[in-house]
Amino acid sequence: MDAIEILIIMGVAILVGFLIIGFIADWDYKNLSGSIRKRMTESEEGKIKVDKDTFAARLGEYSMYCRTQGKAQSKTYHVEGTGSFSKSDLFVIIKDLRWCESVQSAENGCGSREDIEMEPITLPRSVGLRCVDAITKVN
After folding, report:
1. In a designed cystine with 123, which of 72, 81, 101, 128 is the match (CB 3.0 to 4.6 A)?
2. Residues 26 and 91 both lie in one domain
C-alpha cells in the first residue's frame, strides 16, 4: 500500500512541477490545448472532416456500436463534397461494404429492421450522430 501512495504522490508532484514550470516559462496553454484537440479530432473546430464514403463507413461502425452497446453518445463529422446525401445513398455504400447483416434498412433492401434515422442532407455540412434506444439518428 505504501508503494501505491508513493507513486500517486510522485505523479501529482510531477504534474504540479510541470504546471509551475509552465507558468514560469509563460507557456501558451490555450494554444497548446488547441493543438492537442486538433491532433485528436483531425480538425480545428472539433469536427472530423470526411468524404461521403468515409462518412458512410464511420456511420456504419457507429451504428453497429450503438445497436450492440446502446450507450447514449454523440459524434460530429464535417462531410465534404457537393450535392445531396440521402439514406438510400448511404445504403448503396453499406451494401458495397457487405454490412447489411449488421446495419439494416428494410426500406432500402438491406435487412429487415431500421437501424438508422436520416433525412437527406446537402453537402458540405456538419452532421451529428446520436445513439437513442439502439437507433442511430443523423441530423
Report:
1. 81
2. no
